[in-house]
Design goal:
Elements: H1 22-30, H2 64-84, H3 94-106, E1 123-127, E2 134-137, E3 141-145, H4 146-152, H5 156-171, H6 174-184, H7 188-196, H8 201-211, H9 219-235, H10 242-256, H11 260-264, H12 271-288
Parallel strand pairs: 1-3
Antiparallel strand pairs: 2-3
């Protein structure tokens, strides 16, 4: 792949890391009850789709702006390293076109879940690596590794499920929540300095960047990402039933060799059943949605190496 200098791609114009108990089952039970108006989600009866709990108050302990700045810095550094290794796919690569097309169909539906997403500079990039992984950092910084496309031979619907899931982590500020919990254990002085941008705040900001790709989210966060991801994909015209086939593929791949994605998104025996339980809530959205006017496919065997 020809070397290229990574530059931000603004994908918002014109539109746009799972997963396994009493606590989990209690959360699933909530999904059948009344929706709670929080985080931009209207109350039950005012909308169709999945129902989730309000965002955690722990996220308020950390500045969203600081988190997004740290994410952008780490994301750009990662792209720069990939570019130096000739492992950053160019904009003309068929799989990059595919990922960016799908993202543009999903992004308009993210605003309901986080109004700030309208202001994010969404970016989608493809990195030439055999890792079976993908992520969306705070502020809408998305990356897919080539391995997840080639190893799992993902359909467009399955790609949309992954993308919607990862987008949800950013939209619902799961990283900010987890960092708030982490920082709460470090004492009120450091929390205060981070909030005010004083003292050790700069060091904490640097620490944030190093944590963003290794955070492990809780079961509730992972289930929430699954469900909201299903809805985003369905509204974007992608069949949410692909959520089942996706995690079947993921489990099969993990049985052959450890899947990087599952190291930060632990799988569980109840995951597919949770998705199936909620399909009736999103299937009508898919049936009525405008369908994609372009369809792509996984990398061909001849292109199974790192992108060029």
């Amino acid at each position: 792949m020809a070397e290229t200098t990574p530059t931000p791609i603004d994908l918002s114009c014109g539109c746009s890391c799972g997963f396994g108990g009493l606590r989990r089952r209690s959360f699933v039970a909530l999904l059948g009850g009344a929706a709670l108006a929080a985080g931009g989600v209207p109350e039950a009866g005012a909308r169709e789709g999945v129902e989730v709990k309000p965002p955690s108050v722990m996220s308020k302990l950390v500045s969203a702006e600081q988190i997004e700045q740290a994410a952008a810095k780490q994301y750009n550094a990662m792209l720069g390293q990939a570019s130096q290794k000739r492992a950053l796919a160019t904009a003309s690569h068929p799989q990059v076109e595919r990922l960016r097309y799908i993202s543009r169909r999903l992004i308009p539906y993210t605003y309901e879940w986080n109004p700030n997403a309208k202001e994010w500079r969404w970016e989608v990039n493809l990195i030439g690596s055999k890792q079976v992984n993908a992520f969306c950092m705070p502020g809408g910084k998305i990356a897919f590794y080539y391995g997840i496309l080639s190893e799992l031979k993902l359909s467009d619907d399955e790609v949309a499920m992954i993308m919607g899931h990862e987008m949800t982590h950013a939209l619902r500020e799961h990283a900010r929540e987890q960092m708030g919990k982490n920082m709460a254990t470090r004492g009120a002085i450091e929390i205060g300095s981070a909030l005010l941008g004083l003292g050790s705040g700069g060091r904490l900001l640097a620490d944030m960047g190093g944590q963003l790709l290794t955070l492990r989210f809780g079961r509730d966060d992972e289930l929430e990402a699954d469900l909201i991801g299903l809805e985003l994909a369905a509204r974007g015209g992608y069949d949410p039933r692909a959520g089942v086939s996706l995690w079947q593929k993921m489990a099969a791949a993990n049985s052959r060799a450890p899947v990087e994605l599952l190291s930060t998104h632990p799988s569980g025996s109840t995951r597919i059943s949770d998705i199936e339980l909620n399909l009736p809530k999103v299937q009508p959205l898919y049936e009525r949605a405008d369908k994609p006017d372009r369809r792509f496919g996984p990398p061909t065997p001849a292109a199974a190496s790192a992108p060029r």
